[in-house]
Amino acid sequence: MRTSDGTYLAVVEFGGGGPPVLLLHGLMGRATTWWSVARRLTDHGRVLGLDARGHGRSQAAGPWTTDRMADDAADLLEQAGAGPAVVIGHSMGGLHALALAARRPDLVRGVVVEDMAVDLTGLAGRPVADMAAWFGAVPQPFACREAVREAFGYPRRELGDYMAECVEERADGLHLLTRVRDALEIATGWTREARWADLDAVGCPVLLVEAEESVAPAGQMAAMAERLGAEHHVLPGTGHLVHADEKAFLGVVEPFLTRCR
Description:
The chain is α/β, with parallel strands linked by helices. It is built from ten helices and nine strands. The chain has a domain at 11-121 and 194-259: Rossmann fold. It has helices at 35-41, 66-79, 92-103, 126-136, 145-152, 157-164, 180-192, 196-201, 220-228, 246-259, and strands at 11-15, 20-24, 46-50, 85-90, 108-114, 167-170, 173-176, 206-211, 231-235. The strands form two sheets. The chain has a seven-stranded mixed beta sheet with strand order 1-3-2-4-5-8-9, sandwiched between helices. A two-stranded antiparallel sheet has the order 6-7.
């Protein structure tokens, strides 16, 4: 599809029919990282996924702001005739889901935020510095997908599996689909701008799903839930990629989808 600013974004139709469910992936990801969960969610409606700009098969074109990327999701729902939707976002996608619900309440009937905070300004750029150091220590290209899994799968194997989905074959081997410099610019924006005001503009039901080993500042997702009047679950044994534990994740998401029909 083409967005309102002319950028090409790739869309995945996972199947299902009826009320729409839109899946928004995390930083460095792509829509197909949702594949297994998405196929389960087709029992609850028409499931769509979006490769965010600069990710997957989408065009790498800024601006890289939260508002622009929320508008991209709005463009998809409008063009697909698929609103109002329940929007489920992991990490970066969760931030975009909240911004979308705040900016376009006509397109959103429910939001699920998976392990993301709205205020990272107090971290003084540490997440960006950590990310730069991490990717700087992992040279490209990779010889095979198992090499990608080995590079990113410590201490949690599921992240290696996630990143193995987010590479492409080139003449010299496998490369990450997202340019690291673009990802760093996106993440830098999170450390410069708190988005508490988005919560005050969200009028639909919200479910917050937090990892036991969360990347969110301690206590912030609970504070978000209180401000929103939202349901909040911390899922034991999970890391940032909460939906890798499909049983636990769907155990709280599926009842929420039923309530949002």
